[in-house]
Amino acid sequence: MWRGRSAPHWSEAPHVNASQPKAPAADQTLRILGLLAGSRGPLAASMIASRLELPRSTVYQLLAALQHHGFVMHLPEEKRYGLGIAAVELSSAYARQEPLARLGRPLLRALVDRVRLSCHLAVPHGRDVLYVIEERAPGSPHLVTDVDVRLPMPVTASGRAVLAALPKAQVRALFPDRGAFVQRGSEGEEPIDRYSRLRAVLDETRTRGYAIERGSVTAGLASIGVPVLDHRGWPVAALATTFPQRDVPEERLPGLAAEARRTAELLSTRIHGRAAPA
């Protein structure tokens, strides 16, 4: 739907012949980004050239330009290329648009009514998560994770849910060294300050089936999180429930995670995605 200006009449709109792109370099660049976005992990330049039937020299030149602008990351040890921070931020910019919030808000309200705990929705934003919805349960404490707040992915349940749903090579591309980690105090957890520690936490998350953090964001509060996936199985958001640790016994966590997962699956379906894996 057009907003603001009226949609132009068909006779006034410029004619575009999609089958004959006038800017071949732009077309080739977008094809590379599309291929990387649709792959489950980083690809070698030779594989990109083969799949797109492009000269290797052209692919290397375009990858260099994309890497310079942050849309592609090079993994030198694996000799592969994956999506960079700029591409991830483009994805999160789309996810932050009003449709996601409008689709998600009533679902989160219903979840809060069922579990009687505060819930929120966050989208990936570079190495952070950006909170786009917060629904507080009556009488619940104020949360740091308010709308438009950004927090480091490794610190939060939402961020861990997103990272656990990504290919491991893509996570490595996002966190190539210790400089990529933001130090944050925690009372209940070992700090995630290096890739090996992050990898261990994400392995536990995949095995458990949901992410959890205890006291890393706010002392005394814990959260569980699950991903919201698009049609490719790529995490575009994460849904989390936050609660005082003393009020929720450990045996209740799987049930809370199941409720959150059902809501995430419904949201995935409404944005033409698919259900998060159990």
How do the strands and helices of this protein lay out in sequence?
Blueprint: H1 24-38, H2 45-52, H3 56-68, E1 72-75, E2 80-83, H4 85-95, H5 98-115, E3 118-125, E4 128-135, E5 150-152, H6 157-165, H7 168-174, H8 195-208, E6 211-214, E7 221-229, E8 235-244, H9 253-270
Antiparallel strand pairs: 1-2, 3-4, 3-8, 4-5, 6-7, 7-8
Helix pairs in contact: 1-3, 2-3, 5-9, 6-8
Please explain how this structure is put together.
It comes from Leucobacter triazinivorans. It contains nine helices and eight strands. Strand 3 (118-125) and strand 4 (128-135) form a beta hairpin. It is 41% helix and 18% strand. With 278 residues, the chain is α+β, with helices and mostly antiparallel strands. It has a six-stranded antiparallel sheet, sandwiched between helices. Strands 1-2 form a two-stranded antiparallel sheet.
Count of helix runs = 9
Indicate the radius of gyration in whole angstroms: 20 Å
In CATH, the homologous superfamily of the largest domain goes by the name GAF domain
Write down how many β-strands occur, each being a DSSP E stretch of 2 or more residues. Answer: 8
**How many strands, what sense, and barrel or not for the largest sheet?**
6 strands, antiparallel
Would you give the CATH topology of the largest domain?
A: Beta-Lactamase
Strand content: 15-25%
The structural domain count equals 2
Structural class: alpha+beta
Shape designation: elongated
Order of helical and strand elements: HHHEEHHEEEHHHEEEH
Q: So what's the CATH class of the largest domain?
A: Alpha Beta
Instruction: Give the overall pLDDT as a whole number.
Output: 82
Low-pLDDT segments, ≥5 res:
1-18
- Helix fraction, binned, reads 40-55%
- The side-by-side strand order for the widest beta sheet comes to 5-4-3-8-7-6
Instruction: Provide the CATH architecture of the largest domain.
Output: 2-Layer Sandwich
Report the span from N to C terminus: 36 Å
GO biological process, one term: glycerol metabolic process
GO molecular function, one term: DNA-binding transcription factor activity
Pfam family, one: IclR_C
Region (Disordered): 1-23
